[in-house]
Specification:
- The complex is a heterodimer.
- By secondary structure, chain A is α/β, with parallel strands linked by helices.
- Chain A is built from 12 helices and 10 strands.
- Chain A has a single domain, classed as P-loop containing nucleotide triphosphate hydrolases (Rossmann fold), CATH 3.40.50.300.
- A 6-stranded mixed β-sheet of chain A has the order 6-7-8-3-9-10, sandwiched between helices.
- Chain A is globular.
- Chain B is an all-alpha fold.
- Chain B has a single domain, classed as Phosphate transport system protein phou homolog 2, domain 2 (Methane Monooxygenase Hydroxylase, Chain G, domain 1), CATH 1.20.58.
- Helix content of chain B is 86%, strand content 0%.
- Chain B is globular, with a radius of gyration of 19 Å.
- The chains are: A alpha/beta, B mainly alpha.
Amino acid sequence: METVPQKNEFFDESVRTVETSNKEDKPLQKTMEKGRTLVPRENRQTVGEIAIDNPRMTCRDVNVYYGEKHAIKNVSLDIGRNEVIAMIGPSGCGKSTFLRCLNRMNDTIDSCRVTGNIALDGVDIYDKNIDVVPLRAQVGMVFQKPNPFPKSIYENIGYGPRIHGLCQNKAELDEIVEKSLIRAGLWAEVKDILEHPGTGLSGGQQQRLCIARTIAVSPEVILMDEPCSALDPIATAVIEDLIDELREQFTIAIVTHSMQQASRVSQRTAYFHLGDLIEVGPTAQIFTNPSHQLTEDYITGRFG
Amino acid sequence: MAKDHIVRSYDQELDLLQAKLLEMGQFAEEQLRKALEALVSRDNRLAVNVISSDSKVNKLQSEVDRLTVRMLAMRQPMALDLRHIISALRIGVELERVADYAANIGKSVIDLNHVSLEEPVEQIIRMAELTQKMLNEVMHAYRKVNVSQAIAVWKQDEEVNKIYANLLSQLRLYMKEDADNINSYTSLIFVSRSCERIGDHIKNIAECVYYIEKGQEYAALVAADEC
C-alpha cells in the first residue's frame, strides 16, 4: 500500500514547483533560450559575418556623402571569391551607391565624397596612384538597361581587349570575342551575325552581350546593377543561370530590387536600410531565418 | 525528375530532394523487412538493430524538411514544382511515421520472443509483407509520378484493413481462451496495429503522387464519387 503523503508536502505548491523546475524545466528552458531572438529595429550595427576567409575585396568603414547627404554610413563588408553577393534593400537604402564605390563609378559625381578603405586583392583602389581605367576593367559593370555600343556585335566585344592591350593580332582578338560570347551563352545565337549591330538584338541578348563585353577584358569582379529589371521572365532566367555559371570564374556583386532574384542567384546577401548595412549572411539563412527585425520586415513585406 | 528549368541548379535541387525521399523510402522499407524477419526468425538482435537504426530516418526527414523550406524560400516554386515540393515535405513526414512503426514492431518482437505463438502469426506476416510491397510500389509510383500505380497501391490498403479486422477478432478470442498469454496477444495486437497504420501512411503517399500529377485531392474525389 502506498504511503499517503504528508498533508503539507502534498499541498505545498512551491516545493513541488521547485522540484519539477529543477528536474525538467531547466534543460527545456536552456533549449528554448538557444532559439533566436531578433535584433530590435533601433539597433543599426551590422549583424552577421562581414569578414570572410580569403576575400577578393575588403571594404572597411566606408562612408559616402552626396554633398550634405550621408548616403552610406560606416559600412564594412568583404566580398568573396567565386561567390555571388546580393545587395538588397528599399529604394534609397544605398545599395547602388555602395556598389558604385567598388569600381569608383562615384568619381564621376562631383558632389560625391567617399571615405574609408576599399581594397581589391589587398590594394587600396582609392589610392592616388590608381588609374581608374584598368580598375574598371578589373572590376567590370553591367547596368540596368542593356547599353551596347552603336557598333557591330564583334566590335562591342573587341573594343575593350584592344584598348587594354589584351591581344596582339586579329586571330587573338577573334578568339577573345568567341570565348566571351560562349561564356555569356550568346555564341550560338550570334555567331553568324557578328557584323550586325549590337543594338539590333533583343533586350535579353543585348544584356548578355554587355556581360560578354565585361568578361572580354578578363575582370576579377563583375558588378551588376539591376541587370534583369528591363527583361522578361525568360530572359531573366537565362541571365540568372548565366550568373550561376560565371560564379565559378568571377566574383559577382549584384544589386537587385527583386529579393526573389537575390534569393535565387546569390550565396551571400547584404541588407541595406537608410545607408546602414543592417545584416549580411548566407542567403538561405537571410531568407528563411534572418537575425535583424528590419531584415525580416523587408523580406516579409511588412516594411514601413 | 528532369524538369528542364532554364536555371539548371533548380533542377539539381529538385533531383536532390527526390533522391533524399527515395533513399528514405528504401530505408523505411528495409526497416520494415528487418522487423518482419526479426518476428519470423525470433531474432532479438535484429529487432534491436531496427530500433536503433530509426534515428537515421529521422535524420533524413530533417534533411528533407530543411531542403524544402530552403527551396520554398529561394526558388519561389509554382504549379508542378510547388506541388512537388509541398508533397516532398508531406511524404517525408509519412515515411518517418512508417519507419517509426517498423521500430515499434521491433519493440513488440522483443516482448514476444520469449513465448511460443503459432496461430495468428501467419496472418501478421501476410499483412507485413503486403505493406512492404505497397511501400515499394508507392515509392516507385512517386519516382515515376505514375498515377495509376499510386491508385493501385491506394486500393490495396483495403486488404490490409480487412486482415487487421480479422486478426483483431481472432486475437480477442485467443485472449479469452488463453488468458495466461494475454501479454503476448497484446504485443501481437500492437504489431498488427502498426502494420495497419503503415498501410494508412502509404495510402497518404499515394495521394501525394496523385496530387503532384493532377493537382487535386484523390481522397476527396473518391468521397465525392461515392456520394
